[in-house]
Design a protein that fits this description.
The complex is a heterodimer of chains A (555) and B (570). Chain A is α+β, with helices and mostly antiparallel strands and 555 residues long. Chain A has 18 helices and 20 strands. In chain B, β4, α5 and β5 form a beta-alpha-beta unit. The chains are: A alpha+beta (555), B alpha/beta (570).
């Protein structure tokens, strides 16, 4: 470890936060401002809340002598991404009363609400609590929401694997009771020893920490893009353990060559429940102890791994767990995108995967998705399953199928899902403007209209039904996993994007930068030229990403 | 004082004189002394003719504090002359006591459209409905006013006339003062002492004529350039509050708490219509009250052509002999519906109309921070004068001011709304645009490094869109200039929350501040805000100070008398 005085400022804030309390209570009482005191803006992330402001309004409000229009994003902790129907109904009402009204499905398989004012935070979290939901540790330097292959039909042991998502989430929760004290008005703890935290201590992780569980042949979770990726190994319909990948991570910073996206390294196989949980836990303790705490841009596990080497890491892990890693088992991914429409699993339940453009559940003239889901949630037995591709799977029993079908038809949801082009259905965009403080360029507000233009190019070149994965983010931090797309558009400045090519369909390979700082006209012209060549010269079943690689458009 | 030979002669004269003769002699000698004095100064009055032994009651009805200042000066002169006096604000004076008074000096200001000040309402009601005789009362009225308004000194003149109707005897005629009142007021005070020495009866010896200062008002006009006009409310607000910065290009002489007066001009198109209707040329010079201006100038910038007063309608009715029903009219529709006779000239019109009433706006900046500027906080919809004349005209005019356009304004001092000593704590209650003078206060205290604590109560509809000057209050909070801020946003929750609720929530602290010497300022809407704030203050004083209601009222009155409870409400 470096000397204490070189720690990044956030490290001090964590250590001095009195178990993630900071001065949040006082900040909430500051009536003259919609924002929190400086340090609390970091502390509150551990409670699953981000302070944001409407960046579209900044300039005008400054002239009006008004502070920025601050509001908060609250992100739920939803390991494996499932909700009961009554929980969905509750969220529907909370969103309507306190937020912009849009319910956003995220790439981490959870839900977030935007535009909540400071005074509404407590009511919102208390409303969540009434339906047994919380937002603990969904942001901040800590293990985030644990995601898991979404579609139950993927495997008969899907349910068993989902319990891992919950158990890992519970295992890696902070011990602090601050959330309950501050938001739920539970009694103040008098004995600080009671929340001593052997995992996080008082310093938590050096940076965010992400865990994903994949169930082959689905790689909907992009298992190589996370700090820990667990790939379920199933033999004769029995879960026997997981292949363990470490050090994936997709964020980078423009102009900082020390930062880069990295595919997770497969380091071995862990058998059974006890070993799996132990290994996961100790990966975190290694990163806690060795992660870079002076430079937040070097603080993810991927840099620790590259600094110390994979062999060192394995040795350290085996020493900490007390058992050796077994050699990785073979696995085969066949698909990354969601399978839309109806399907059924072995036990007879039905699933309808709804296409949710950019993950935004709202009502438009053509598609009244929010109304439809609300009506569907009146059927008690329906389970809502969110995918890492920002879609929702409606999990219904045979008796409920007809009713769900009727509602999906009635509100235009089925038509929208079933007629959308593959490129649109597989697209991902992050939140970006107007609320994300990191955004350099638009993403979810812009990608749908750009795709309409790309669709017409594809029609021109006769490739309209090709499933080319396209992902857009407003900055290089990678929330929409753009480095794993066949076409990655990464915002550089307002209206400008780097164009990345060469990712594969399955999320096994990173793409590379092809052109820099393109505006819309340049993006369309470039793609038009590339599509022309692709439609003429591709081999049978050759994907756009593979073709780009073969043509050496990128090296 | 007298040589012994003179004194002997006087004693000889008085030795066999009847009581009636003595009284006559007393008056006679006083008259001689008055004529002989020549210089009109109090000091030269004969000490031999004593002032009355009864007390003189000095009553004042003030709007800006000027009346009170004069009343205090008169009281101190009484003291130095050895005459008993008592001094009362009219809202603290039971009017039925008039019958028991011997001498009353009444100092009465006028505001709005000839209205008495708020504090004098009760007094006016009494004298208007009273039918008894005040024959034993001797009085004099000093009327304060502003020639810029149509009904100059109306309240004082009304009071004087009514007192005479009730049989009271004037000590000397009513004096009317313009904005620069000091000379006339001094003359009036001198006159009172002379007449009281003389102790003769004015109405038997002098014709009754109002005494008016002839000197033209020395009010200074500034020409300002608009250097900012910003809507402070954000999108989605129901309010439209403008922050307007006026630059004069030279230092402006004012004090935080003052207002500016602006005369909103008429629409040029309307003026053209009127001139056309009367076949008049815009450049024809017209004289009105000894001032000559082109016809267009009179109608565009000086005289009211909208919402004509009853007096103007009456005059027009009489002149045209049309049966015009009583109602509110603008000039153009009036001329259309009841056309003037062919010989009706624009000259007549100009002399028939009344001046545009100046509108007052609290200055939202301090000369310490912006010596050459005044800032205004103007709400476009909410200003109304008590007489019902829409302030809309002025707020519309100001709201619509373009950058770099110019307008004339003058400073309207508000002597009763002044920051206390630098070390004194200040409590400011100013919801809505009532916050304007407090921005000036804070700038002043920030610039001068005043050590007293400052506590602001502010309220509006929504925190997100209507927190006027939010960034500035935040910056004063973080620098410590503003000690505390209590905010009430009425529509951010189910139940409406107003500043008085926040005061109640902080009752203990608020009372502690006040009881430890803080000055309390209220600015904004008279109704219902200032009434509810005052009721809340009384309730807090009562509960926190462990007093009964009457004691709380006395406590607040004492504060008010000490200048520690000040209101600027409209």
């Amino acid at each position: 470890m470096s000397a204490n005085d070189k720690l990044s400022p956030v490290e001090k804030i964590k250590q001095q936060s009195h178990g993630l309390r900071g001065t949040l209570t006082a900040s909430l009482e500051d009536a003259h401002t919609g924002q929190l005191r400086d340090d609390d803006q970091h502390v509150i992330k551990f409670h699953g809340i981000y302070q944001q402001d409407d960046r579209d309004r900044r300039e005008a409000r400054a002239e009006k002598k008004l502070e920025r229009l601050y509001s908060y994003m609250v992100r739920l902790r939803l390991p494996g991404g499932t909700l009961t129907a009554p929980q969905w109904q509750a969220i529907h009402h909370i969103a309507g009363e306190f937020s912009t009204g849009v319910i956003k499905i995220t790439t981490r398989q959870t839900l977030q609400l935007h535009g909540i004012v400071k005074a509404a935070l407590k009511p919102v979290l208390q409303s969540f609590d009434r339906v047994a939901l919380d937002s603990i540790a969904t942001c901040g330097d800590i293990n985030r929401n644990v995601i898991c292959a979404a579609h139950p039909a993927v495997s008969p042991v899907h349910q068993e694997i989902h319990t891992y998502a919950h158990d890992i989430s519970t295992l890696l929760m902070p011990k602090s009771k601050a959330y309950y004290e501050i938001w739920l008005d539970q009694e103040k703890l008098t004995d600080e020893k009671a929340e001593e935290d052997p995992l996080y201590q008082d310093r938590y992780m050096p940076r965010k920490f992400k865990i994903a569980i994949a169930i082959p042949p689905d790689n909907d979770v992009d298992v190589f893009g996370h700090d820990i990726g667990l790939i379920a190994v199933i033999e004769a319909d029995k879960l026997i353990g997981f292949n363990l990948c470490v050090g994936g991570g997709l964020s980078s910073t423009h102009g900082n060559a020390q930062t880069y996206p990295r595919i997770g390294t497969l380091i071995g196989f862990v058998r059974g429940r006890e070993q799996t949980l132990k290994a996961v836990y100790e990966v975190l303790t290694i990163q806690r102890d060795f992660g870079n705490r002076t430079d937040r841009k070097q603080a993810r596990l991927k840099y620790t791994l590259d600094t110390h080497g994979v062999d060192w890491f394995k040795k350290e892990l085996e020493q900490r767990t007390g058992f050796p890693l077994e050699p990785a088992r073979p696995f085969q991914f066949e698909r990354r995108g969601d399978v839309f429409g109806w399907s059924q699993n072995a036990s007879g339940r039905w699933f309808y995967t709804v296409f949710v453009e950019s993950g935004r559940v709202t009502d438009s003239e053509q598609v009244q998705l929010k109304r439809a889901l609300y009506e569907i949630a009146a059927i008690d037995t329906v389970v809502f399953r969110f995918t890492a591709n920002q879609n929702v799977i409606l999990d219904v029993n045979a008796a409920g199928k007809q009713a769900v079908e009727a509602i999906l038809e009635k509100y235009g949801v089925a038509r929208h899902t079933e007629t959308a082009t593959p490129i649109r259905r597989d697209s991902i965009a992050c939140v970006a403007f107007n609320t994300c403080p990191l955004a350099l360029a638009e993403a979810q507000r812009y990608l749908p209209s750009l795709i309409t233009k790309i669709e017409s190019l594809m029609t021109t070149h006769g490739i309209a039904r090709e499933g080319i994965s396209i992902r857009m983010t407003g900055c290089p931090n990678g929330c929409g996993r753009p480095y794993l797309a066949e076409i990655g558009l990464i915002g550089t400045s307002y209206g400008h994007y780097n164009l990345h090519l060469g990712g594969d369909h399955l999320g096994l390979r990173l793409n590379k930068k092809f052109r820099e700082n393109l505006d819309e006209m340049a993006i369309l012209k470039t793609l038009n030229d590339l599509f022309a060549i692709y439609s003429l010269e591709r081999n049978a079943h050759e994907t756009f990403g593979d073709f780009a690689l073969r043509k050496q458009w990128i090296n | 004082m007298l040589e012994s030979s003179k004194l002997q002669k006087l004693h000889a004269l008085l030795a066999d004189t009847s009581r009636e003769e003595l009284i006559w002699i007393n008056g006679y000698i006083a008259g001689i002394a008055h004529t002989a004095s020549g210089t009109n100064t109090v000091a030269t009055t004969s000490a031999g003719s004593a002032l009355p032994t009864e007390a003189i009651t000095i009553l004042y009805g003030t709007e800006t504090g000027n009346s009170k200042k004069i009343a205090q000066e008169l009281a101190s002169q009484a003291k130095s002359k050895g005459m008993k006096s008592k001094i009362r604000s009219l809202d603290q004076y039971p009017p039925d006591q008039l019958q028991r008074e011997a001498y009353v000096a009444l100092i009465m200001s006028t505001h709005g459209d000839g209205e008495p000040p708020e504090a004098a309402r009760k007094f006016f009601q009494f004298i208007q409905h009273e039918s008894g005789s005040l024959a034993s009362l001797r009085y004099s009225v000093l009327a304060l006013g502003d020639r810029a308004y149509p009904l100059f000194c109306k309240a004082g003149l009304d009071a004087d006339e009514r007192l005479r109707q009730l049989g009271a005897n004037p000590i000397l005629p009513v004096h009317t003062c313009d904005v620069d009142y000091e000379d006339t007021a001094a003359q009036w005070m001198t006159g009172i002492w002379q007449r009281l020495h003389a102790s003769d009866r004015l109405d038997t010896q002098h014709p009754y004529t109002n005494i008016t200062s002839t000197r033209k008002s020395a009010r200074r006009l500034y020409t300002a350039t608009v250097q900012a006009n910003i809507v402070l409310n954000d999108e989605g607000s129901e309010k439209e509050t403008h922050h307007i910065e006026l630059a004069a290009g030279q230092p402006i002489d004012f004090t935080p708490g003052d207002s500016i007066g602006v005369i909103p001009p008429n629409d040029d198109r309307d003026v053209s219509v009127v001139l056309d209707r009367l076949n008049a040329q815009p450049h024809t010079l017209i004289t009105r009250q000894q001032e000559s201006l082109p016809a267009h100038e009179w109608l565009a910038a000086r005289l009211e052509i909208n919402r004509l007063s009853v007096r103007v309608i009456d005059a027009y009715r009489q002149r045209t002999q049309h049966a015009i029903p009583a109602d509110t009219y603008n000039l153009i529709p009036l001329l259309e519906a009841w056309p003037p006779p062919a010989d009706f000239t624009v000259d007549e019109l100009v002399n028939m109309l009344e001046p545009i009433t100046p509108r007052l706006y609290s200055i939202a900046s301090s000369p310490q921070a912006y010596p050459d500027e005044v800032h205004l906080t103007v709400s476009r919809h909410t200003f109304l004068t008590p007489s019902g004349v829409g302030y809309g005209k002025a707020s519309d005019y100001l709201s619509g001011l373009k950058l770099h356009s110019t307008l004339p304004f003058y400073i309207h001092p508000n002597a009763s709304f002044r920051l206390p000593a630098p070390e004194t704590d200040v409590i400011m209650i100013g919801p809505g645009t009532g916050v304007a003078p407090f921005r000036a206060f804070m700038q002043e205290r920030d610039q001068t490094g005043a050590s007293g604590r400052n506590w602001l109560f502010f309220g509006e509809q929504h925190v997100a869109t209507d927190f006027l000057y939010q960034l500035e209050w935040q910056s004063w909070l973080s620098s410590g200039v503003l000690t505390r801020i209590s905010l009430a946003f009425s529509r951010d929750q189910q139940q409406k929350i107003y500043v008085q609720h926040r005061m109640q929530e902080s009752a203990a602290d608020l009372f502690h501040w006040i009881d430890s010497g803080a000055s309390v300022y209220v600015c904004g809407a008279r109704e219902p805000m200032s009434v509810e704030v005052e009721n809340t203050l009384l309730a807090i004083i009562q509960s926190e100070g462990k007093m009964n209601h009457a004691e709380a009222v006395t406590y607040l009155h004492t504060l008010s008398e000490a200048g520690r409870y000040r209101k600027d409400v409209y």
